[in-house]
Amino acid sequence: MREDLMIALSADHPLAKSSSISARELRNEAFIVPQFSESEGLGEILANLGRRGGFDAEPRYRVADFITALCMTTAGYGVVLVPHSMKSLAPADVAFRAIGDYRDEIELALAYRTREVAPCVKKFVDATIARYPRQSSSRRR
């Protein structure tokens, strides 16, 4: 599954007033970066964003996941590049904006037990596969 990336920032951040943000406008921001392992994370994507904006984008904070990054965003620690689907999981005081002159995607994965019996998990898996039908690998149930 692939999703477009957007920038998440505190709802009271000055850039949240715009419907779209340019890469250059992110020049002086502190970036919060989910780092899932030593070899995985958004480092290269962040570097590409910085090149587009004419600056060296360096992570100020590395965190374990998107939810932690969004919580830090609400507390004013910085901004974070997130997949579009994070909008549905974020606290109310997070604003999401497109980066008008930069577009990139992130690969998302869904792992689940093929013999899962919990109805809510089955519904979630079904909804996710329905949302990304062409991108989902063959389903084994």
Q: How would you describe this protein?
A:
The model has no long low-confidence stretch (mean pLDDT 87). The chain is 23% helix and 23% strand. Strand 3 (31-34), helix 1 (43-53) and strand 4 form a beta-alpha-beta unit. The protein has two domains: 2-107, D-Maltodextrin-Binding Protein, domain 2 (3-Layer(aba) Sandwich), CATH 3.40.190; 110-141. It starts with a strand and ends in a 10-residue tail after the last helix. The protein is elongated and about 50 Å long. The protein has three helices and seven strands. It has 141 residues and is α/β, with parallel strands linked by helices. The longest helix is centred in the C-terminal third of the chain and has 13 residues, at 119-131. It has helices spanning 43-53, 66-74, 119-131, and strands at residues 2-10, 20-21, 31-34, 59-63, 80-83, 94-99, 105-107. The strands form two sheets. Strands 1, 2, 5, 6 and 7 form a five-stranded mixed sheet that branches.
Task: Offer a concise description of the structure.
The chain is α/β, with parallel strands linked by helices and 141 residues long.
Topology:
Layout: E1 2-10, E2 20-21, E3 31-34, H1 43-53, E4 59-63, H2 66-74, E5 80-83, E6 94-99, E7 105-107, H3 119-131
Parallel strand pairs: 2-6, 3-4
Antiparallel strand pairs: 1-5, 1-6, 1-7
Helical amount among residues, as a percent range?
A: 10-25%
How many structural domains in the coordinates? Answer: 2
Average per-residue pLDDT, rounded, comes to: 87
Biggest beta sheet attributes: 5 strands, mixed
CATH topology of the largest domain: D-Maltodextrin-Binding Protein, domain 2
The tally of helices reads: 3
- First-to-last CA distance: 19 Å
Low-confidence region ranges: none
CATH superfamily of the largest domain, called what? Answer: Periplasmic binding protein-like II
Principal-axis shape: elongated
| CATH architectural group of the largest domain | 3-Layer(aba) Sandwich
Number of DSSP-assigned strands: 7
Name of the top-level CATH class of the largest domain: Alpha Beta
Strand-and-helix sequence, N→C?
Answer: EEEHEHEEEH
Radius of gyration: 16 Å
Which structural category do the helix and sheet elements fall into?
Answer: alpha/beta
Strand content: 15-25%
Protein name: LysR family transcriptional regulator
Domain LysR substrate-binding: 2-128
Pfam families: LysR_substrate
Family: Belongs to the LysR transcriptional regulatory family.
